[in-house]
Amino acid sequence: PSTALCYSVKGPEKQYVGFATLPNQVHRKSVKKGFDFTLMVAGESGMGKSTLVNSLFLTDLYKDRKLLNAEERIHQTVEIIKHTVDIEEKGVKLKLTIVDTPGFGDAVNNNECWKPITDYIDQQFEQYFRDESGLNRKNIQDNRVHCCLYFIPPFGHGLRPVDVEFMKALHEKVNIIPLIAKADCLTPNEIKKLKDRIREEIDKFGIKVYQFPECDSDEDEEFKQLDKELKWRTSRTVTLSN
Ligand code: GDP
């Protein structure tokens, strides 16, 4: 914003209209431009990924989806499919991109099935780096993956090797939020056991999952309370997807 420190000529009194208006200008500009948010969803087919995304954002992002039969899934390769929607809430625009990874974990041999996903994430970092180093930096589109929801099946007794491998391959590149898929199929007791087991394994394998950042000590009490509650609910993040 290029407002110089100057006097307002309007009105009888002289008044500063300088840098004190900067926060408003920055806020107005950001709101006008909107925000980019890219969410990746990963997990086997049938875990409820599309249902969760559709209900989170109240849209139908999967209208043209082709479902594979069991035979086709044996040799399934992992694809990366992007769905984009523009959402507006109280005047704030959000360009939401959902990166879907159909085929992940579906084949009989799931060796290195996370590779196309890590390659995709790296490519987005490289593209952003190139755009930022270029001359036209005004309209850069941020396609980096900001968050990954990882669906863990509810039927096992903890993490499977493919879950560990996937999270280890991605945890340095993206914020991972592990979810227990279809947790409504389990009793509260079973959920607790599975959650504890998964947390133990996450620690054991040194996997870093997303943690809420610390809230500033000078925030007001109400905000601090809200922050505490959120952290408690998602305590060391193994969330339920239903
Ligand atoms: P995707 O292949 O991972 O995208 O899975 P879908 O969203 O297509 O869901 C597969 C099936 O599971 C559908 O029949 C859904 O109705 C059902 N489903 C989705 N989410 C849940 C859930 O949280 N609990 C239960 N019990 N079923 C669900």
UniProtKB/TrEMBL annotation:
**Family annotation (Pfam families):** Septin (PF00735)
Q: Where is the Septin-type G domain?
A: 33-242
Name its species: Gasterosteus aculeatus aculeatus (three-spined stickleback)
InterPro entries recorded: G_SEPTIN_dom, P-loop_NTPase, Septin
Please identify the protein, giving its name as recorded: Septin 5a
GO molecular function terms attached to this record:
GTP binding
Q: Which UniProt keywords apply?
A: GTP-binding, Nucleotide-binding
Task: Note the site residues: Important for dimerization.
Answer: 155
